[in-house]
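Subject: complex prediction, re-run

Hi both,

The earlier run crashed halfway through, so I resubmitted it with identical inputs.
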Amino acid sequence: MAVPVSQAWTVASYVLTQKLKGRKRYPLVLMLEPLFRCNLACAGCGKIQYPAHILKQELTPEECFRAAEECGAPMVSIPGGEPLLHPQMPEIVAGLVARKKYVYMCTNALLLKEKLHLFKPSKYLSFSVHVDGQREHHDFSVCREGGYDIAMEGIRAAVAAGFRVTTNTTLFDGADPNSVRAHFDDLMAAGVESMMVSPGYTYDKAPDQNHFLGKAKSRRLFRAILSNRKKSWQFNTHPLFSEFLMGKQNFECTPWGMPTFSIFGWQKPCYLLQDGYADTFKELMEETAWENYGAKSGNPQCANCMVHSGHEASAVDYNFSSLKGFLVTARKYMFPSAYPDPDAQKLLNEWRPEHSGPLVQIQSNNAVNDELQEVSGD
Amino acid sequence: MATEQQEHLKIEQLRQHNADEIETIAGREKENLEGWIPTLASDAEVRDALEKAFDYRGDVTITRKDGSQVTGYLFDRRTGSSLTDSFVRVIPTNERVKVNVVYAEIAALAFTGRDNAAGKSFEAWVKKYWEKKVAGEKNIRIDPEKLD
Ligand code: SF4
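This time it finished cleanly. Structure:
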Protein backbone atom coordinates (compact mmCIF):
# COMPACT_ATOMS: atom_id res chain seq x y z
CA MET A 1 0.00 0.00 0.00
CA ALA A 2 1.53 3.27 -1.12
CA VAL A 3 0.90 5.54 1.83
CA PRO A 4 3.42 7.39 3.98
CA VAL A 5 4.88 5.34 6.82
CA SER A 6 3.44 7.77 9.37
CA GLN A 7 -0.06 7.15 8.03
CA ALA A 8 0.36 3.37 8.00
CA TRP A 9 1.70 3.57 11.56
CA THR A 10 -1.19 5.79 12.75
CA VAL A 11 -3.77 3.44 11.26
CA ALA A 12 -2.07 0.30 12.59
CA SER A 13 -1.77 1.66 16.12
CA TYR A 14 -5.36 2.92 16.02
CA VAL A 15 -6.70 -0.49 14.96
CA LEU A 16 -4.56 -2.29 17.54
CA THR A 17 -5.85 0.04 20.27
CA GLN A 18 -9.44 -0.70 19.24
CA LYS A 19 -8.69 -4.42 19.33
CA LEU A 20 -7.01 -4.21 22.73
CA LYS A 21 -10.02 -2.30 24.05
CA GLY A 22 -12.16 -5.19 22.80
CA ARG A 23 -14.17 -3.02 20.35
CA LYS A 24 -15.90 -5.24 17.86
CA ARG A 25 -17.00 -2.34 15.69
CA TYR A 26 -14.71 0.58 15.04
CA PRO A 27 -14.63 3.08 12.17
CA LEU A 28 -11.60 3.28 9.94
CA VAL A 29 -12.51 6.13 7.61
CA LEU A 30 -15.10 8.85 8.14
CA MET A 31 -16.92 9.54 4.89
CA LEU A 32 -17.73 13.21 5.33
CA GLU A 33 -20.20 14.59 2.81
CA PRO A 34 -20.31 18.34 3.40
CA LEU A 35 -22.64 18.96 0.45
CA PHE A 36 -24.40 17.10 -2.34
CA ARG A 37 -24.21 19.60 -5.18
CA CYS A 38 -21.79 19.00 -8.00
CA ASN A 39 -20.49 20.67 -11.13
CA LEU A 40 -20.85 17.43 -13.09
CA ALA A 41 -23.89 15.24 -13.75
CA CYS A 42 -22.20 11.83 -14.04
CA ALA A 43 -24.01 8.86 -15.47
CA GLY A 44 -23.27 6.52 -12.61
CA CYS A 45 -23.94 8.94 -9.77
CA GLY A 46 -26.90 8.64 -7.47
CA LYS A 47 -25.62 11.18 -4.97
CA ILE A 48 -26.72 14.38 -6.63
CA GLN A 49 -30.41 13.73 -7.13
CA TYR A 50 -32.02 15.94 -4.52
CA PRO A 51 -34.31 18.96 -4.62
CA ALA A 52 -32.54 22.31 -5.04
CA HIS A 53 -33.06 23.35 -1.40
CA ILE A 54 -31.16 20.24 -0.28
CA LEU A 55 -28.41 20.70 -2.87
CA LYS A 56 -27.88 24.25 -1.62
CA GLN A 57 -27.28 23.13 1.96
CA GLU A 58 -23.84 22.40 3.34
CA LEU A 59 -22.26 21.36 6.60
CA THR A 60 -20.49 24.09 8.55
CA PRO A 61 -16.82 23.59 9.45
CA GLU A 62 -17.88 23.12 13.10
CA GLU A 63 -20.31 20.35 12.13
CA CYS A 64 -17.52 18.65 10.17
CA PHE A 65 -15.09 18.85 13.10
CA ARG A 66 -17.72 17.58 15.55
CA ALA A 67 -18.42 14.59 13.28
CA ALA A 68 -14.68 13.81 13.00
CA GLU A 69 -14.28 13.94 16.77
CA GLU A 70 -17.44 11.96 17.50
CA CYS A 71 -16.37 9.22 15.11
CA GLY A 72 -12.68 9.17 15.99
CA ALA A 73 -11.51 7.46 12.78
CA PRO A 74 -7.90 8.25 11.85
CA MET A 75 -8.77 8.96 8.21
CA VAL A 76 -11.40 11.27 6.75
CA SER A 77 -12.54 10.99 3.17
CA ILE A 78 -14.46 13.99 1.84
CA PRO A 79 -16.67 12.98 -1.07
CA GLY A 80 -19.84 14.80 -2.08
CA GLY A 81 -21.08 16.27 -4.38
CA GLU A 82 -17.99 18.20 -5.32
CA PRO A 83 -16.25 19.38 -2.14
CA LEU A 84 -14.48 22.23 -3.94
CA LEU A 85 -17.88 23.90 -4.42
CA HIS A 86 -18.10 24.35 -0.64
CA PRO A 87 -16.90 27.91 0.06
CA GLN A 88 -15.33 26.87 3.39
CA MET A 89 -13.61 23.73 2.17
CA PRO A 90 -10.08 25.08 2.76
CA GLU A 91 -11.09 25.83 6.36
CA ILE A 92 -12.62 22.37 6.79
CA VAL A 93 -9.54 20.64 5.41
CA ALA A 94 -7.18 22.80 7.51
CA GLY A 95 -9.23 22.04 10.66
CA LEU A 96 -9.11 18.31 10.03
CA VAL A 97 -5.38 18.42 9.28
CA ALA A 98 -4.86 20.35 12.52
CA ARG A 99 -6.63 17.46 14.27
CA LYS A 100 -4.07 15.12 12.65
CA LYS A 101 -6.62 13.35 10.52
CA TYR A 102 -5.39 11.89 7.24
CA VAL A 103 -7.69 13.63 4.79
CA TYR A 104 -8.58 12.39 1.31
CA MET A 105 -10.38 15.23 -0.41
CA CYS A 106 -12.24 13.61 -3.29
CA THR A 107 -12.67 15.83 -6.32
CA ASN A 108 -13.45 15.68 -10.00
CA ALA A 109 -10.67 18.31 -10.23
CA LEU A 110 -12.60 20.69 -12.49
CA LEU A 111 -11.80 23.44 -9.98
CA LEU A 112 -8.62 22.00 -8.50
CA LYS A 113 -6.09 24.08 -10.38
CA GLU A 114 -7.79 27.38 -9.61
CA LYS A 115 -8.38 26.56 -5.92
CA LEU A 116 -5.04 24.94 -5.17
CA HIS A 117 -3.58 28.08 -3.60
CA LEU A 118 -6.25 27.89 -0.88
CA PHE A 119 -4.73 24.66 0.50
CA LYS A 120 -1.37 23.89 2.07
CA PRO A 121 0.61 20.75 1.21
CA SER A 122 0.77 18.38 4.17
CA LYS A 123 1.44 14.72 4.78
CA TYR A 124 -2.08 14.67 6.21
CA LEU A 125 -3.74 15.87 3.01
CA SER A 126 -4.21 14.05 -0.25
CA PHE A 127 -6.35 15.15 -3.19
CA SER A 128 -8.15 12.04 -4.36
CA VAL A 129 -9.03 12.80 -7.96
CA HIS A 130 -11.82 10.85 -9.60
CA VAL A 131 -10.69 9.77 -13.06
CA ASP A 132 -12.79 6.98 -14.54
CA GLY A 133 -10.43 5.86 -17.27
CA GLN A 134 -8.61 7.15 -20.30
CA ARG A 135 -9.81 10.34 -21.97
CA GLU A 136 -12.86 9.06 -23.84
CA HIS A 137 -13.93 6.64 -21.11
CA HIS A 138 -13.71 9.32 -18.45
CA ASP A 139 -15.42 11.99 -20.55
CA PHE A 140 -18.22 9.60 -21.36
CA SER A 141 -18.78 8.46 -17.82
CA VAL A 142 -18.83 12.02 -16.47
CA CYS A 143 -20.97 13.12 -19.44
CA ARG A 144 -18.62 15.93 -20.31
CA GLU A 145 -16.12 16.12 -23.12
CA GLY A 146 -12.92 17.78 -22.02
CA GLY A 147 -13.41 16.63 -18.40
CA TYR A 148 -10.42 14.32 -18.56
CA ASP A 149 -8.02 17.00 -19.76
CA ILE A 150 -9.09 19.37 -17.00
CA ALA A 151 -8.76 16.62 -14.36
CA MET A 152 -5.28 15.67 -15.55
CA GLU A 153 -4.26 19.31 -15.61
CA GLY A 154 -5.48 19.59 -12.00
CA ILE A 155 -3.48 16.49 -11.04
CA ARG A 156 -0.30 17.83 -12.63
CA ALA A 157 -0.72 21.23 -10.99
CA ALA A 158 -1.29 19.67 -7.56
CA VAL A 159 1.71 17.35 -7.94
CA ALA A 160 3.88 20.28 -9.06
CA ALA A 161 2.74 22.30 -6.03
CA GLY A 162 3.93 19.52 -3.71
CA PHE A 163 0.58 17.98 -2.75
CA ARG A 164 -0.06 14.30 -2.28
CA VAL A 165 -2.34 13.22 -5.14
CA THR A 166 -4.14 9.91 -5.38
CA THR A 167 -6.81 8.79 -7.83
CA ASN A 168 -10.05 6.89 -7.74
CA THR A 169 -11.43 4.97 -10.72
CA THR A 170 -14.91 3.42 -10.71
CA LEU A 171 -15.69 0.77 -13.31
CA PHE A 172 -19.02 -0.20 -14.83
CA ASP A 173 -20.10 -2.99 -17.15
CA GLY A 174 -18.33 -2.58 -20.45
CA ALA A 175 -15.06 -1.36 -18.96
CA ASP A 176 -12.08 -2.36 -21.09
CA PRO A 177 -9.27 -3.82 -18.93
CA ASN A 178 -6.58 -3.03 -21.49
CA SER A 179 -7.60 0.59 -21.48
CA VAL A 180 -7.76 0.62 -17.65
CA ARG A 181 -4.18 -0.68 -17.52
CA ALA A 182 -3.04 1.99 -19.95
CA HIS A 183 -4.91 4.48 -17.75
CA PHE A 184 -2.81 3.36 -14.76
CA ASP A 185 0.33 4.05 -16.79
CA ASP A 186 -0.94 7.53 -17.63
CA LEU A 187 -1.76 8.29 -13.99
CA MET A 188 1.59 7.12 -12.66
CA ALA A 189 3.36 9.12 -15.39
CA ALA A 190 1.44 12.20 -14.22
CA GLY A 191 3.05 11.76 -10.81
CA VAL A 192 0.20 10.44 -8.68
CA GLU A 193 1.21 8.83 -5.40
CA SER A 194 -1.15 5.88 -5.70
CA MET A 195 -4.42 4.75 -7.27
CA MET A 196 -7.65 3.13 -6.23
CA VAL A 197 -9.97 1.17 -8.48
CA SER A 198 -13.38 -0.16 -7.52
CA PRO A 199 -16.50 -1.57 -9.18
CA GLY A 200 -19.57 0.68 -9.31
CA TYR A 201 -22.49 -0.10 -7.06
CA THR A 202 -26.08 -0.63 -8.19
CA TYR A 203 -27.33 2.75 -7.01
CA ASP A 204 -31.07 2.69 -7.33
CA LYS A 205 -31.01 6.38 -8.20
CA ALA A 206 -28.32 6.13 -10.87
CA PRO A 207 -29.56 7.32 -14.26
CA ASP A 208 -28.08 4.20 -15.84
CA GLN A 209 -29.82 1.18 -14.36
CA ASN A 210 -28.59 -1.32 -16.93
CA HIS A 211 -24.84 -1.41 -16.66
CA PHE A 212 -23.95 -2.59 -13.22
CA LEU A 213 -21.26 -5.23 -12.94
CA GLY A 214 -22.30 -8.50 -11.34
CA LYS A 215 -19.84 -10.27 -9.08
CA ALA A 216 -18.73 -12.88 -11.63
CA LYS A 217 -17.93 -10.28 -14.25
CA SER A 218 -16.33 -7.96 -11.69
CA ARG A 219 -13.93 -10.67 -10.58
CA ARG A 220 -13.00 -11.52 -14.18
CA LEU A 221 -12.48 -7.87 -15.02
CA PHE A 222 -10.35 -7.18 -11.94
CA ARG A 223 -8.35 -10.34 -12.45
CA ALA A 224 -7.54 -9.13 -15.97
CA ILE A 225 -6.67 -5.65 -14.73
CA LEU A 226 -4.77 -6.37 -11.53
CA SER A 227 -2.84 -9.55 -12.42
CA ASN A 228 0.56 -9.26 -14.11
CA ARG A 229 0.81 -5.80 -12.71
CA LYS A 230 3.60 -3.40 -13.45
CA LYS A 231 6.08 -2.46 -10.74
CA SER A 232 5.46 1.19 -11.51
CA TRP A 233 1.82 0.95 -10.42
CA GLN A 234 1.14 2.00 -6.86
CA PHE A 235 -2.22 1.29 -5.25
CA ASN A 236 -3.49 2.74 -2.03
CA THR A 237 -5.92 -0.07 -1.38
CA HIS A 238 -5.23 -2.89 1.02
CA PRO A 239 -3.57 -5.83 -0.83
CA LEU A 240 -6.24 -8.22 0.43
CA PHE A 241 -9.01 -5.96 -0.87
CA SER A 242 -7.35 -6.03 -4.26
CA GLU A 243 -7.28 -9.85 -4.00
CA PHE A 244 -10.96 -9.77 -3.05
CA LEU A 245 -11.72 -7.89 -6.28
CA MET A 246 -9.67 -10.44 -8.23
CA GLY A 247 -11.63 -13.33 -6.70
CA LYS A 248 -8.73 -14.62 -4.61
CA GLN A 249 -10.28 -13.74 -1.23
CA ASN A 250 -13.76 -13.63 0.12
CA PHE A 251 -14.77 -10.99 2.63
CA GLU A 252 -18.10 -10.18 4.16
CA CYS A 253 -19.07 -6.53 4.29
CA THR A 254 -18.05 -4.33 7.21
CA PRO A 255 -20.63 -1.54 6.82
CA TRP A 256 -19.55 0.19 10.05
CA GLY A 257 -15.93 0.50 8.83
CA MET A 258 -16.53 3.67 6.84
CA PRO A 259 -19.48 5.58 8.33
CA THR A 260 -20.98 8.51 6.45
CA PHE A 261 -22.02 11.89 7.86
CA SER A 262 -23.96 14.49 5.85
CA ILE A 263 -26.55 17.24 6.33
CA PHE A 264 -29.06 14.46 7.11
CA GLY A 265 -26.94 13.00 9.95
CA TRP A 266 -25.20 9.61 10.22
CA GLN A 267 -26.31 7.44 7.32
CA LYS A 268 -27.55 3.93 8.07
CA PRO A 269 -25.93 1.59 7.28
CA CYS A 270 -23.24 2.63 4.80
CA TYR A 271 -22.04 5.13 2.25
CA LEU A 272 -24.16 3.56 -0.48
CA LEU A 273 -27.34 2.33 1.07
CA GLN A 274 -29.79 4.73 2.65
CA ASP A 275 -31.88 3.15 5.33
CA GLY A 276 -32.42 6.17 7.54
CA TYR A 277 -30.23 8.45 9.63
CA ALA A 278 -28.99 8.60 13.21
CA ASP A 279 -28.40 11.89 14.98
CA THR A 280 -25.24 10.79 16.76
CA PHE A 281 -22.43 8.42 15.94
CA LYS A 282 -23.20 6.45 19.10
CA GLU A 283 -26.80 6.02 17.98
CA LEU A 284 -25.60 4.87 14.54
CA MET A 285 -23.34 2.23 16.04
CA GLU A 286 -25.74 1.03 18.70
CA GLU A 287 -29.09 1.15 16.97
CA THR A 288 -28.38 0.01 13.43
CA ALA A 289 -29.42 -3.59 12.77
CA TRP A 290 -26.04 -4.46 11.24
CA GLU A 291 -27.05 -8.08 10.79
CA ASN A 292 -29.43 -6.95 8.01
CA TYR A 293 -26.57 -5.91 5.71
CA GLY A 294 -23.86 -7.61 3.70
CA ALA A 295 -24.20 -10.40 1.15
CA LYS A 296 -24.66 -13.10 3.79
CA SER A 297 -27.69 -11.31 5.25
CA GLY A 298 -29.72 -12.08 2.13
CA ASN A 299 -30.53 -8.39 1.67
CA PRO A 300 -30.94 -8.06 -2.12
CA GLN A 301 -29.51 -4.56 -2.01
CA CYS A 302 -26.21 -5.99 -0.77
CA ALA A 303 -26.10 -9.08 -2.98
CA ASN A 304 -23.95 -7.52 -5.67
CA CYS A 305 -21.83 -5.20 -3.62
CA MET A 306 -18.03 -5.45 -3.74
CA VAL A 307 -17.29 -1.81 -3.09
CA HIS A 308 -14.32 -0.44 -1.26
CA SER A 309 -16.33 1.37 1.43
CA GLY A 310 -17.92 -1.88 2.57
CA HIS A 311 -15.12 -4.37 2.08
CA GLU A 312 -11.73 -2.76 2.53
CA ALA A 313 -12.31 -2.41 6.26
CA SER A 314 -12.93 -6.19 6.30
CA ALA A 315 -9.45 -6.74 4.88
CA VAL A 316 -7.95 -4.43 7.52
CA ASP A 317 -9.93 -6.13 10.28
CA TYR A 318 -8.75 -9.53 9.04
CA ASN A 319 -5.10 -8.61 9.28
CA PHE A 320 -5.47 -7.46 12.88
CA SER A 321 -7.73 -10.29 14.01
CA SER A 322 -5.20 -13.12 14.18
CA LEU A 323 -1.49 -13.74 14.01
CA LYS A 324 -2.04 -15.55 10.73
CA GLY A 325 -3.89 -12.56 9.26
CA PHE A 326 -1.15 -10.25 10.46
CA LEU A 327 1.64 -12.37 8.99
CA VAL A 328 -0.16 -12.86 5.67
CA THR A 329 -0.64 -9.11 5.30
CA ALA A 330 2.85 -8.19 6.49
CA ARG A 331 4.31 -10.51 3.86
CA LYS A 332 2.19 -8.91 1.16
CA TYR A 333 3.42 -5.45 2.13
CA MET A 334 7.05 -6.51 2.36
CA PHE A 335 7.08 -8.58 -0.82
CA PRO A 336 4.39 -7.10 -3.07
CA SER A 337 3.36 -9.53 -5.77
CA ALA A 338 2.85 -8.72 -9.43
CA TYR A 339 0.29 -11.56 -9.41
CA PRO A 340 1.71 -13.36 -12.47
CA ASP A 341 -1.18 -15.12 -14.16
CA PRO A 342 -0.97 -16.37 -17.77
CA ASP A 343 -4.73 -16.97 -17.87
CA ALA A 344 -5.37 -13.38 -16.92
CA GLN A 345 -3.00 -12.32 -19.68
CA LYS A 346 -4.97 -14.48 -22.08
CA LEU A 347 -8.12 -12.75 -20.91
CA LEU A 348 -6.51 -9.41 -21.71
CA ASN A 349 -5.28 -10.51 -25.09
CA GLU A 350 -8.66 -11.88 -26.07
CA TRP A 351 -10.79 -9.14 -24.54
CA ARG A 352 -12.93 -7.45 -27.12
CA PRO A 353 -14.86 -4.34 -26.15
CA GLU A 354 -18.57 -5.11 -26.04
CA HIS A 355 -20.51 -2.84 -28.27
CA SER A 356 -23.72 -3.19 -26.33
CA GLY A 357 -22.80 -1.00 -23.41
CA PRO A 358 -22.80 2.76 -23.48
CA LEU A 359 -19.35 3.06 -21.99
CA VAL A 360 -17.65 0.81 -24.51
CA GLN A 361 -18.28 2.64 -27.72
CA ILE A 362 -14.77 3.98 -27.55
CA GLN A 363 -12.52 2.33 -30.08
CA SER A 364 -9.99 -0.03 -28.57
CA ASN A 365 -6.47 1.22 -28.39
CA ASN A 366 -4.58 -1.21 -30.61
CA ALA A 367 -1.22 0.06 -29.58
CA VAL A 368 -2.12 -0.78 -26.01
CA ASN A 369 -3.34 -4.25 -26.95
CA ASP A 370 -0.24 -5.02 -28.97
CA GLU A 371 1.99 -4.02 -26.10
CA LEU A 372 0.19 -6.48 -23.85
CA GLN A 373 0.51 -9.57 -26.00
CA GLU A 374 3.01 -10.94 -23.54
CA VAL A 375 2.74 -11.13 -19.79
CA SER A 376 3.53 -7.64 -18.67
CA GLY A 377 5.09 -6.35 -15.49
CA ASP A 378 8.34 -4.50 -15.71
CA MET B 1 -35.05 0.16 2.89
CA ALA B 2 -36.44 -0.46 -0.55
CA THR B 3 -39.76 -2.22 -0.79
CA GLU B 4 -39.93 -5.66 -2.40
CA GLN B 5 -41.86 -4.14 -5.27
CA GLN B 6 -39.04 -1.66 -5.97
CA GLU B 7 -36.38 -4.34 -5.86
CA HIS B 8 -38.33 -7.01 -7.68
CA LEU B 9 -36.05 -7.28 -10.74
CA LYS B 10 -33.06 -7.96 -8.56
CA ILE B 11 -34.99 -10.30 -6.27
CA GLU B 12 -36.19 -12.27 -9.31
CA GLN B 13 -32.63 -12.46 -10.65
CA LEU B 14 -31.35 -13.65 -7.29
CA ARG B 15 -34.06 -16.31 -7.13
CA GLN B 16 -32.79 -17.79 -10.39
CA HIS B 17 -29.04 -17.38 -9.88
CA ASN B 18 -26.42 -17.34 -7.20
CA ALA B 19 -25.23 -13.75 -6.62
CA ASP B 20 -21.63 -14.88 -7.12
CA GLU B 21 -22.39 -16.09 -10.64
CA ILE B 22 -24.34 -13.14 -11.97
CA GLU B 23 -22.60 -11.28 -14.77
CA THR B 24 -24.70 -8.13 -14.85
CA ILE B 25 -26.97 -7.26 -11.98
CA ALA B 26 -30.44 -5.85 -12.50
CA GLY B 27 -31.15 -2.25 -11.65
CA ARG B 28 -34.44 -0.89 -10.45
CA GLU B 29 -37.57 -0.18 -12.44
CA LYS B 30 -38.47 3.44 -12.02
CA GLU B 31 -41.85 4.10 -10.46
CA ASN B 32 -43.58 7.26 -11.52
CA LEU B 33 -44.57 8.78 -8.19
CA GLU B 34 -44.55 12.46 -9.09
CA GLY B 35 -47.98 13.96 -8.38
CA TRP B 36 -49.16 10.78 -6.61
CA ILE B 37 -51.64 11.20 -3.77
CA PRO B 38 -51.86 7.83 -2.04
CA THR B 39 -54.93 6.71 -0.17
CA LEU B 40 -54.12 6.26 3.47
CA ALA B 41 -57.11 4.17 4.53
CA SER B 42 -55.28 1.37 6.36
CA ASP B 43 -52.14 1.18 8.48
CA ALA B 44 -50.47 -0.85 5.75
CA GLU B 45 -51.23 1.83 3.15
CA VAL B 46 -49.81 4.54 5.44
CA ARG B 47 -46.60 2.58 5.99
CA ASP B 48 -46.19 1.71 2.33
CA ALA B 49 -46.80 5.27 1.14
CA LEU B 50 -44.33 6.71 3.67
CA GLU B 51 -41.72 4.13 2.71
CA LYS B 52 -42.09 5.29 -0.90
CA ALA B 53 -41.92 8.92 0.23
CA PHE B 54 -38.63 8.10 2.00
CA ASP B 55 -37.32 6.69 -1.25
CA TYR B 56 -38.60 9.60 -3.35
CA ARG B 57 -36.04 12.18 -4.51
CA GLY B 58 -38.43 15.11 -4.57
CA ASP B 59 -40.36 17.11 -2.00
CA VAL B 60 -43.62 15.88 -0.51
CA THR B 61 -46.44 17.68 1.24
CA ILE B 62 -47.83 16.23 4.45
CA THR B 63 -51.17 17.45 5.80
CA ARG B 64 -51.64 16.79 9.49
CA LYS B 65 -54.98 15.88 11.03
CA ASP B 66 -55.09 19.37 12.63
CA GLY B 67 -54.98 20.88 9.13
CA SER B 68 -51.38 22.17 9.27
CA GLN B 69 -49.02 21.29 6.44
CA VAL B 70 -45.33 20.70 5.96
CA THR B 71 -43.70 20.63 2.52
CA GLY B 72 -40.15 19.48 2.13
CA TYR B 73 -37.72 16.62 1.64
CA LEU B 74 -38.59 13.51 3.65
CA PHE B 75 -35.11 12.23 4.46
CA ASP B 76 -35.82 9.67 7.17
CA ARG B 77 -38.49 7.53 8.74
CA ARG B 78 -38.45 5.61 12.00
CA THR B 79 -40.92 2.80 12.05
CA GLY B 80 -42.19 1.48 15.36
CA SER B 81 -44.74 -1.16 16.20
CA SER B 82 -47.72 1.16 15.69
CA LEU B 83 -48.52 4.38 13.84
CA THR B 84 -48.25 6.33 17.09
CA ASP B 85 -44.62 5.37 17.65
CA SER B 86 -43.55 5.75 14.02
CA PHE B 87 -42.54 9.07 12.53
CA VAL B 88 -41.08 10.68 9.44
CA ARG B 89 -38.43 13.41 9.42
CA VAL B 90 -38.69 16.25 6.94
CA ILE B 91 -36.40 19.15 5.99
CA PRO B 92 -38.86 21.88 4.97
CA THR B 93 -38.32 23.71 1.70
CA ASN B 94 -37.41 27.05 3.29
CA GLU B 95 -35.71 26.20 6.56
CA ARG B 96 -32.70 24.26 7.74
CA VAL B 97 -34.47 22.34 10.47
CA LYS B 98 -35.64 18.75 10.86
CA VAL B 99 -39.36 18.38 11.53
CA ASN B 100 -40.80 15.16 12.95
CA VAL B 101 -44.32 14.06 12.02
CA VAL B 102 -45.89 11.04 13.71
CA TYR B 103 -47.54 8.61 11.27
CA ALA B 104 -50.78 8.68 13.28
CA GLU B 105 -51.05 12.47 12.83
CA ILE B 106 -50.94 12.31 9.03
CA ALA B 107 -54.21 12.95 7.22
CA ALA B 108 -52.84 13.22 3.68
CA LEU B 109 -49.62 12.84 1.72
CA ALA B 110 -48.84 14.18 -1.75
CA PHE B 111 -45.73 13.77 -3.89
CA THR B 112 -45.76 17.43 -4.85
CA GLY B 113 -42.13 18.08 -5.82
CA ARG B 114 -40.39 17.09 -9.02
CA ASP B 115 -38.77 13.65 -8.89
CA ASN B 116 -35.09 14.48 -9.25
CA ALA B 117 -34.22 10.88 -10.09
CA ALA B 118 -36.71 10.66 -12.95
CA GLY B 119 -36.36 11.43 -16.61
CA LYS B 120 -32.59 11.25 -16.66
CA SER B 121 -32.21 8.02 -18.50
CA PHE B 122 -28.69 7.17 -19.51
CA GLU B 123 -29.96 5.76 -22.77
CA ALA B 124 -31.32 9.19 -23.68
CA TRP B 125 -27.90 10.72 -22.98
CA VAL B 126 -26.15 8.10 -25.14
CA LYS B 127 -28.56 8.75 -28.00
CA LYS B 128 -28.10 12.50 -27.73
CA TYR B 129 -24.33 12.07 -27.46
CA TRP B 130 -24.13 10.11 -30.70
CA GLU B 131 -26.44 12.45 -32.55
CA LYS B 132 -24.26 15.38 -31.55
CA LYS B 133 -21.05 13.50 -32.29
CA VAL B 134 -22.24 12.57 -35.77
CA ALA B 135 -23.25 16.19 -36.34
CA GLY B 136 -19.62 17.14 -35.56
CA GLU B 137 -20.45 19.01 -32.38
CA LYS B 138 -17.66 19.63 -29.89
CA ASN B 139 -17.67 19.78 -26.09
CA ILE B 140 -20.75 17.61 -25.72
CA ARG B 141 -21.83 17.57 -22.10
CA ILE B 142 -24.61 17.30 -19.57
CA ASP B 143 -24.50 20.13 -17.07
CA PRO B 144 -26.06 19.95 -13.63
CA GLU B 145 -29.30 21.84 -13.32
CA LYS B 146 -29.22 25.42 -12.13
CA LEU B 147 -30.18 25.71 -8.48
CA ASP B 148 -31.81 29.14 -8.53
S1 SF4 C 1 -22.81 -4.89 1.21
FE1 SF4 C 1 -22.42 -2.90 0.23
S2 SF4 C 1 -24.45 -1.91 0.15
FE2 SF4 C 1 -24.59 -3.58 1.67
S3 SF4 C 1 -24.12 -2.61 3.62
FE3 SF4 C 1 -22.20 -3.42 2.79
S4 SF4 C 1 -21.27 -1.68 1.70
FE4 SF4 C 1 -23.44 -1.19 2.03
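Residues A 253, 255, 269-270, 272-273, 293-294, 301-302, 305, 307, 309-310 surround iron/sulfur cluster (CB under 6 Å).

- K.
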